[in-house]
Amino acid sequence: MSSAGTLIEARLRRPGFALDVEATWDERVAVVFGPSGSGKTTLFRTVLGLLPAARARTRLAGVWLEDPERGLRIPTERRGLGWVPQDPTLFPHLSVEQNVRFGAARAGEDAERARRLAIEVLEIGDLLGRRVDGLSGGERQRVAMARALASGPRALLMDEPLAALDLPLRARVLPYLLRLRDELEIPILYITHDPDEAMLVGEVAVVLDAGRVVATGSPREVLWSRSVLPLSEALGLENVIDARAVEAGDTESTVETAVGLRLVVPAPLKRGESVRLGLRAQDVLLAGERPNRLSARNVFEAAVVDCEKRDGSVFVRLAPLSEGARATPDARLVAKITPAAAAELGLRPGASVYVIVKAQALRRLA
Amino acid sequence: MRARAARAVPGAPPLDGRGRLRWLAVAAACLVGSSAGADEILVASAVSLREPLTEIATRYAARGADAGVLLTFGGSSALAAQVRAGAPVDVLVSADERIIDDLERQGLVDAESRIVVAYNRLVVMVAEDLEIPVDSPEDLARPEVRRIATPELAVPVGRYAREWLQRRGLLERLTPRLIPTEHARATLAAVDHGQADAAFVYATDARLARSARIAFEVPDAEQPRIVYAAARVQSSTRRSGADDFLAFLGGEASRDALRTAGFVSAGDPP
Amino acid sequence: MSLDEVASITSLTLRVGLVATAVILPPCLALGYVLARRSFPGKSAVQAVVALPMVLPPVAVGLGLLLLLGRRGPLGWLWSLSGVEVVFTWWAAAIAAAVVGFPLLTRACEQSFAEIDPRFEEVGRSLGLGRMRTFFRVTLPLARRGVFYGMLLAFTRALGEFGATTLVAGIIPGRTETLALGIYSRVQLGDDSGALVLCAASFAIAFAAMLVAEGWLRRSRTAVE
After folding, report:
1. Does the CB of C8 have a partner CB in chain B at under 8 Å?
2. Residue C163 gets which letter from DSSP?
3. What pLDDT digit, counting tens, does each position of A15-62 carry?
4. Structural domain range at position B175
5. What ipTM was assigned to the predicted interfaces of this complex?
6. Among positive and negative, which fits the CA dihedral C136, C138, C142, C146?
7. What angle separates helix C140-160 from helix C3-37, to the nearest 10 degrees?
8. Do A166 and A276 fall within a single domain?
9. CATH number at residue C122
10. Suppose C113 and one of A10, A183, C36, C117 were both cysteines; which one would form an S-S bond, judging by CB atoms 3.0 to 4.6 Å apart?
11. Is there a domain that residue A136 lies in?
């Protein structure tokens, strides 16, 4: 058995879904990464003790919460966990202050200190007298974090706290989150399906797919490992491009993919060097005609394979048609654009478009 | 109020200890009610006898009886159901002697104690705006009398009316004109308010009419036997009190009260 | 009819309605919660049994209660033991009102609990409150409006309860004669004006109950401001 501070084993069978997780780590801040439906939230709920049907062994930072072998099963209310659910789930019948004080009894003598810290770190002092239903999305999220924190938890469990927020809001809440992470000494478990967020927040990443752990380790290494990449690809968030350098330079180089597509990359490479590039779907621009006088270094023609509407965006799968490149199923790219843009471009399977990729958007993964 | 003070404490739950205490206080206050006394006899009586029986009970008490009298009212068949279920009734006064017959057969009332309390008579009433005079049973068959109110067969007055119409050979012809009413009082209301042109009611109810008038009384020879009977309930635990009250109920002071209310007293059988 | 008589009938009716509602509140909350949150074999059978007093004619409910509580009934031995008789007391009226109000309040509780996302309770428990305290500090306050309307419904149903009450409580003037029974017997006796006075009293109670309810709900709505 491992001497790791944290150990989570969870097994649960439901129609159409099975969770079978085993993971250990010593790091304080762990991200649980995986596409939606991979079992992240279910895992949290077993850690919280909310799923009596699950068979779980849980030790959080050295403290046993559940161990069927010893007949140990601490009830949810005595686990001392600060849970920030995905939807903030603030109590609508209480004011902000009453929400923050809700778990104060558990904090005991430290209640006042824990509350002050929560209010200070999350800067919600001005919100205390407000009603919950008058708060903005970001404020709600901060209050939910403060509520969890003010209960003097032995660990924080945050379930995609940024997922419900739009991008500008994320940018505003993220600093609070990082501050929270840095000023606390308690373990944090953090769920996300966003690779960037996972890299930013986590010291260790536990990657889930279809109810199983596919990798555990440092986010920087693990998130781009062979076993994990298909996940972000499957989410359409990331294009992964394998290529070989054909022209070397001091600041930028040209690479060629297996199907003959040439791309300019902002990195000094040696001739013949193999690289793996990441390109986020939202960084792929599309144009109806060949653009000229453009700062972007990479422009090539591609055929639309299909379009899929998901989460308010349109994911367009493309087959590059550039000089000599033949469309093969392997050489597909995904672009994420707005429905309005898709309509304006008149995208339909078989249509031809121009793909524009800033060199800066191509990140070297390996 | 207290609730406001409780609410002023931030974080205080809305239904706190004090709130629950308040409920207890209300409940406790309500407990200080009365339940049936041990030395009272309970007389269950047909609603139609409420007026005279209230008067009789007052007179009985004034006479200085050992036990007080508690009256409960209801429809005669409901009272019978109560007796059958073992309700703590001591004396039953029914508007329909057949109900007493049934209970007697079942051994639920004491046959020895049984008395006739009063009689009633069946009368025919007409609405005040009916254009033709109705003086005889045959007049009911005239086309101007379009609707005749009478309760269903299951209600005593409905049964009496049908039996009498049958006897006069009018039932078949008049059946399409009969409009069913809930009970005797509703029948009177129907003819009083002009929803019916004619109605079969008890003589005692007829006295309460506002606008409808009595067309004719069913002739003496054809009057149904409408008998109000009383008996001691077999399971009564206050036998002597019950018998004492029954004796008083059959006595002269009671007959007087019944006559005043329009009943034919037991002393003057039809 | 004297004012005293009206006042005594009215206060008896209020007492019956309040006691009936208060007595059924805890079991209705518990049962409503279980029905809203748990699934178990035979749940629909339980729901059907709960709804029974609502489906059956009140007279049948009264007869059932009479058979149950009467001297010859299964609970009749209580009478022979203690000499305490429930039938024909205002308690019987309260029991009848409680039985007919029970399905209304249980259903209202069940529905208002079902509308509350169980996540709120889970968060409450994660913050250190046991199931009971979570119920009283999270679930019940969130469901208060529905529960309160259910109580109002049960209370007003109690005010109007007639069929079951006449059988188990009788119509004993001054003891069990509630407004509904008083109206009935006065109509029976042709005392229409007396019946109308009692109708007015019924209306006044129902109206006052609505006013209290509205006031309470408005206050609870603004309580956190």
Report:
1. no
2. H
3. 888 999 999 999 999 999 888 788 999 999 999 999 988 899 999 988
4. 122-222
5. 0.84
6. negative
7. 140
8. no
9. 1.10.3720.10
10. C36
11. yes
